[in-house]
Structure formats: structure tokens, C-alpha cells
Amino acid sequence: MLTSQAVRDHLPVVRRYARALTGSQASGDSYVTAALEALTADPGLIGDQTSVRVGMFRVFSKIWNSVPVNAGREPVNPNPADRRLSQIGAMPRQAFLLVSLEGFSEEDAAKILDVSVGELRALIDECGKEIASQIATNILIIEDEALIAMDLQSLVENLGHEVQGIASTRAEAVALAKNKNIGLILADIQLADGSSGVDAVNDLLATFEVPVIFITAYPERFLTGLRPEPAFLITKPYQPAMVSAVISQALFFERNAHKSQSRAVG
Hints:
Blueprint: H1 4-22, H2 25-41, H3 52-65, H4 83-86, H5 90-101, H6 106-113, H7 117-135, E1 138-142, H8 146-159, E2 162-167, H9 170-177, E3 184-187, H10 197-205, E4 212-216, H11 219-222, E5 232-235, H12 240-265
Parallel strand pairs: 1-2, 1-3, 3-4, 4-5
């Protein structure tokens, strides 16, 4: 049953999503208001088979996608800080934000956008390629399983990035990174010789600062010991669309964070 308290509980995250999608809080709030008015008139829009959070995002998305101008590549009143994201098509942009920013599962994000999970993954892949075309970078892969390393290499190169090397141990990772311009690290946690991918990453981050994504079958090991912050975590077995989304998230938001810091210092 939809209650006013349930709506209030989820309103801040819907506003955050609307802000990221439209490019400005004022524009985003106008769509949020329209969604709230629709829910007030018909609380049954959320339905009995979905959570209030998913339902609210679904109603918001239906209203957003019903406005013809939003089908274009430029959101209403875009903020300059969001210019890169604003250049991405509306549906890929939504898929990316729902999974990467709001943390929805692929199933829930697909339900919100009224597409299949396969279609959602294709949208995320498209978004990843478009972001990579704007901020392509050099990637170091730290992975001791050859087939997984090759799969990750193919995935990131298909997105438009360049792999600078593949390391299977902590020592190899440190050696490979020397004299390389690394922009992102993909790392397993348990490596071939018993060394730690977390330790390897900490060694590297002592000399340069880049986003890190851990891809591991042992996520619990990431929660103990000294680990780099912030870092992203993907659990094996992974979906390629999820890797694509997290790479895009790490690069896009890391780049915007540096812009914000530069403006603050200036």
C-alpha cells in the first residue's frame, strides 16, 4: 500500500536521479512534481508487485519519456559539469544512471524503463561506449586467470579503452605500471602466487591516483584489511554490462570530481 511516508522516504533519491538526468535541480524537480501529482491522483500506478522505490522511479520515467524533447541528446537546461552525460542518448543515459548512480539491479532497472534485461544491458553497453569515446583511458588489469583476463581485455577495448598490460601477481603489477600512464585499474583480490590484489593496488596508488575496480569471487576479503578508498566492487561471475556500467561510473564521476576540486581550488 502506498503511503505518504513511503513517498517522502524515497523522494530525495528520486530528486537526485532527476537532477542527474535533466542537468539541473529545477528542471528535475518539475518532473518529480508531475510524478507526485500522478501518484496522488492514482496510487495504483505503483502496483502491488513492485517496491515503492521501483514504482516511484517507474512513474517518473514514464512521465520523463513521454515528453518528446527528452528523446534528444540534450537534457533541459544542462549544467556544464554534466556536459558529457548530456551528450548521451536518453535511454542509455537512464539505464546508466539507474544502475550506476542509484544502484538498482538489472532486473529492477529494466522494470523501471519497461524493457527486457537484455535490452537494458545493450543500453548500458551503448552508454559505456559513448562515455569511453569522450574519456577513453589506459587500463591496467591485475588478474591471474588467463581466460578472465582476456575477457576483460576484450570488453574494455570494445568500449574504446586501451589495455596497458595484464599482471597475474602483485610484483608484476608494480613492474607493469612503471612508466605507464594508467587511468584505471581492474584488479582481482586473490592472485596467482598468493599475493593480494588489494596490496598491489595500494602499492600503485602510493605513486599515482586513479579509480580502482575490484572484480573478485571473494568479496568478503575486500571488507577486511587496508583497502583503497574509494573503490568499486564487482562480484564474479560478472555480467559484461555491469563491468561496462561500473567502468563508466568510475571514470565519469571521477572526472567530474576532479573538475569540482579544480573549481574549488581556483
